[in-house]
Every structure is written in C-alpha cells, then in structure tokens.
What does this fold into?
Amino acid sequence: MRYRQLGSTGLSVSEIGFGGEWMDKTVEETRAVLERADAAGVNILDCWMPDPTRRSNLGDALAQMGARDRWVIQGHLGSTWQDGQYVRTREMEHVRPAFEDLLARFHTDYMDLGMIHYVDRVDEFRQIMDGSPFIRYVRELRDAGTVRHVGLSTHNPDVARLAVEDPEIEMILFSVNPAFDMLPASEDIDDLFGEYDASLEGIDPQRAALYAEAERTGTGITVMKGYAGGRLLDAATSPFGVALTPIQCIHYALTRPAVASIMVGFSEPGHVDGAVAYETADEGEIDYASVLAGAPAHAYFGECTYCGHCAPCPRGIDIPTVNKFHDLAALHDEVPDSVREHYRALEVTAEACIACRACEARCPFGVKVADKMARAVELFGC
It folds into this structure.
C-alpha cells in the first residue's frame, strides 16, 4: 500500500480508503472486511452513515481488533438518525447527540477528521461559517481535541473552492471522476447523474481551479463517488459510451492534484481485494486514457489528464508531473510559491526538453507536449 500526506494535516493516509456506507452486515462480517482492509494497509475510513447498526458494527469490530489507533476516521457532523431515517441537519438539538452517539458507538473519544457534512449550497456554507451555532460546536470539538482536524464534504466545486480558501477547513471529501469533472457546478447533486451534453469536452474550469487552489493552500482531498455511483462501470450508463474498470477510476482520481485517498465501498472481503489490486496493477490495467480517448463521446482531446502515456522521456522528464505543475500555475495570475518549489524540486525540469516530440506520438489526447514544456520554462524560469 502506498501512502500520501493529507494536505497539511500531518496525517499519512492510504491511497485506497474504506467508504463505510454499504457495510450493512453483522459485526462478524464487518470485522472480516475490516481485517482484510487492515492487513492490506488501508488506514482511512469514512463514516457518514447515521444508521445506528452500521455505526455499532464498525465500532465494535474496530474495538475487537484493537485497531482504532491505526485508523484515520472521517466522522460527520450533521448526519443524523431521526425516526428511523437519515436526516441532514444543522439543528444543534440533533447534531450534538448524533456526534456523541458516533463517538460512543466507535468506543473512542476523538475523530481524526470532523467533517462538516454535505454542504452543496454556497449560501449554506456561508451561513455555517459565519458564526453559526453549528460552526461554534465544531470549533469547540476541535479546541478540545475531540476533533483533530476539520473537514467538509461537498459535491459542488463552488462550495469546495470556498472551503479550500478557508483556513479553518483542512481537507475536503469531494466527488471526483472523469464524468463529474466535465460538469459545471450545481447545488443539486441529481444534476451529476442526469443526461450529459454531447458538446462537453475536458475538465470544467471551475473544477480545475478547485484542484489548483487545494494544492496551493495545502488542503487535502479524499474522494467519494469515484465510480460515479457505478455508472462508469457499465457502457450502457457511462456518459462516455464505454465502461471503465474500478482500477481505472481509482487511477483517475489519484492523479488529480491534492488528492490523497479514494474512499471505496466495501461490504465483503473480496471488495477489498478488488480495490487494493490497484497497488500492484500494471500500466495496462490502470490505463483510463486509452478508454476515454477511444470513447464515442466526451473525450479529453488536447488536454493532459496526467495519465503517463507520454513516458519514457529520453531526457528523463516526468512529463505528467511537469504538466500538472504547469496547469496549476497557469490558473493563477502569479505562480504560487508552493507550486514553484515543488516544480523546482524535480530531478529534471522542462528545460531539459529537446522537443523531439516522441512523447506526442504516444499521447492519446493529442497534447502538444513540447509546447507545454516550453511554456513551463517560461512560467518557472527553468
């Protein structure tokens, strides 16, 4: 298992995470899944579901394993269980007891990541952060150490952008996949699952700007809906007209700037095996780019997706990483210091490019790589 730093939190998290939403099993079955994940090196768990049974089973299984301290847990504030059903709320008479219930069922006195749950409206984000009782409670938990770091979950890149610009929010849980990345911001999650306009091409500028700002501010991203709710795994429902594999979807998410981990839904040990197979997958298995480039709709022509097809470079340039830093820098009026430092730390910079263009023949999307290398030299000075 490979691990990544989650932004500036200081937490090291596994690339493959555990999304606990589908873990509606007995405590014994839950423990079998957790043990398989633990053995594979998975160490981050997202627990938004308020269902008391699922919370208890996950918490009891972790306690039986003595594994709580090995796991980074994303526990959500505002996800409540009322009259036998899930209710998202900011009403403190429900928020506080629901979070205390989460701690009790997990047999712990802290959550590594206290997630402001599911904010998809810009006005709601501002209302929460502008001194509301809800944010005062979050700060109270943070100051007491009951929440080690403050995060926020959203599907809307406009809300996510506000979050990564707010120093109180240290990381976000955001929906990332090649289909959603083409769509403009919306306050209605159903828009992400609707019909796609055939004119859509490439990453939406708002989403690209979000990733760039998260990288600049050191705000980590964990990923939800990496398979677009399963739509990408079936040619009949994929907006591209072709199916991707789970491993290809995982690789796409993990090549986005600032992304540390993708939460994958497990409900049996075999699901763990299928996801962690990514860690030993070969280039052909992780290759999402060839699938997208050959798709009948919505391909990313002319745009680098950091897929790595351009390798190897005869001068040793890590072309996808140079392109990533170029794209991050180009979205700002001035090159952010953090991006400049990361670029200059590369063993070989774009200055070494001899414009042989051999890489361009290998690019599935027709990116003019040599031209981008020249622009990178202009941006970074080397």
